[in-house]
Amino acid sequence: IGCEDGSVKLFQVVPGGIQFERNLDRRKGRILCLSWHPSDAHIAAGSIDVLRVFDVSSGQTVQRIMVNYHVQKVKRECIVWSIAFLSSGTVVTSDSFGRVQFWDWERGTLLESHTVSTSAVLSLAVSEKEDSIIVGTSTGATYQFQLLPVKMGSLEKRWVRTKPFQHHTHDVRAVAHSSTALISGGLDAQLVIRPLMEKMQKKGYEAALRKFTFPHRRLVSCARKARLLLFQFSQHLELWRLGSTDETGKDGEVLPLCRMPEHLLQLKSKGPEHIYCSCVSPCGSWVAYSTASRFHLYRVQYEGDGVSIKKV
Predict the structure, then answer these.
(1) How many angstroms separate the Cα of 224 from the Cα of each of 37, 181, 198, 242, 263?
(2) What mean pLDDT do residues 257-285 have?
(3) GO CC annotations (predicted)?
């Protein structure tokens, strides 16, 4: 755990929780990001204007690198927002100057520097094979870097920025790299899954760009007694009856249905306003919803298999 007071604390994972073990060498400056080397022998930590590498066994700082030593006449501080420690010994940092930088931690030297944005690069993630990196910026853009040969058949490789994507409107605060996709989450409350098309064998759901917008309030309400679900959309509501089964089983088991789920009605909102909230009563006889300026209440009546609705 990296702390605002500049300390790095090690905790042991024990049955039922975690247990404090010890502090590593403390220095001035907030710890903003951490990354373990895959060997677990070293930890890289990003701070303001500096990155440090700790030896885990001794707890001492074994390398201190100024991330701005080659920038002339810089007056503002450089914040290292994200860091990754590769098995090759390379440390990758992203910072508030919009740079992604690659460092040789043992020599303390800069290997490569890429300016990808005029504002901050906030997040980065490395693929399992360590041949691809995704970074997220404060402008809503994400970029991919790939480790590619300098020329065809060459053993010498360089990090190359290959793909920019603009799927977010605000800061991209979290990124993840799966074997087949780049995943990013932003302050716009969207989760975006961008497939790497060269990894896809065929078209389908996995090969589609997917955007998930996280709702800020509950969009589904349940009438337990009547076994109904009310789904809220921006301009309409849908009322469904749950399917049922004759069999019993344990939690988590999938049981065969003797009656399929049934769509009972769709209730459209009038006017341009979006539905703000909605609810169905426990007995299933009342449905209510509200826009920013109006409240609507409906009586639902069930006649055999038919359903009728009356505005109250």
Answers:
(1) 51, 39, 47, 10, 17
(2) 91
(3) 90S preribosome; small-subunit processome; t-UTP complex
Looking at residue 266, its amino acid is Q
CATH fold of the domain at 8-213: Methylamine Dehydrogenase; Chain H (2.130.10)
Three-class secondary structure of residue 91 per DSSP: strand
Match 């300016």 to its residue by tokens: 115
Strands 236-241 and 228-232: antiparallel
Residues 6+ apart with CB under 8 A from 39: 87
Q: Structure pTM?
A: 0.69
286 vs 306, residue with greater confidence? 286
CA–CA gap between residue 35 and residue 18 (Å, rounded)? 19
Tell me which of 171-185, 196-210, 221-235, 288-302 is least confident.
Answer: 196-210
CA dist 247 and 251 (Å) reads 13
**Tokens 């290997």 sit at which residue?**
111
How far apart are the C-alpha atoms of 265 and 306, rounded to whole Å? 10
Residue 252 CB-density burial (10 A; 0-12 exposed, 13-18 middle, 19+ buried): exposed
Q: The tokens 């749950």 sit on which residue?
A: 242
Cα torsion for 126, 79, 159, 40, to the nearest 10°?
-40
Separation between Cα atoms, residue 293 and residue 312, nearest integer Å: 17
What is the residue extent of each domain of the chain? Answer: 8-213, 220-311
122 has pLDDT over 70: yes
Per residue in 53-99, pLDDT (tens digit) is 999 999 888 999 888 755 556 678 899 999 999 999 999 999 999 99
